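Let's sit down with a protein and look at its sequence and fold side by side. Go ahead whenever you are ready, and we will take it from there.
>
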Amino acid sequence: MTGVLKCVRVLSIKMIYNLYLIRHAKTQANLEGRYRGASDEPLSAAGLQELKKRIRLGYYPKVDQVYVSPRQRCLQTAQIIYPGLPLKVVPGFDEYNFGIFEGKSYEELKNNPAYRKWIASGGKERAPGGEDIETYKLRCCRAFAEVVEEIRQEGFKDTALVVHGGTIMAILERYIHDEKKFYDWQVPNTQGYKLFLEDEHWQREKIISTYQPFTAR
């Protein structure tokens, strides 16, 4: 009697999702060095010009889905980069609320005792009338985790998140295993990071596999 042994080789296919974190183009407050968090403001003429230049250079990738902060500066940026795609607004991606510091510059605030105390704490203390920084980070990260689950369920291979600098900083500090801290992840306007999210790693450890800054194609 002859027996035939068949060896079946099971290949594990790694599912990787590409996420693009994009900071909105510049507003007038950005140009003037003013705190602009939870208050709203459109893009400036200079910001629009810089954004359109990057688009011409092929800086932004094609994507299947776009998630965006509810602030006008993010909505405008997303609409200009991805005019043919619907935008899904995520309230949790809103910027940090600077409270009584909103709309003011360092020069206007440098002699304010409350501001000096806030700066001395490294921004860890709550801005008067504003948001607690740890609560803010948690809000951003919860929103990101919810978006990732939707991406996985819908099977979006390439996804853009057009958000704020602080939102990007909170997400990267939490989900990338690196020695960098919150303020080390600052990113200029119109720029961002590409994240490689490996499904297995995300399910097991809730981490981002790899990342890289954008480069023009």
Summary: Residues 133-154 form the longest helix (22 residues). The chain has eight helices and six strands.
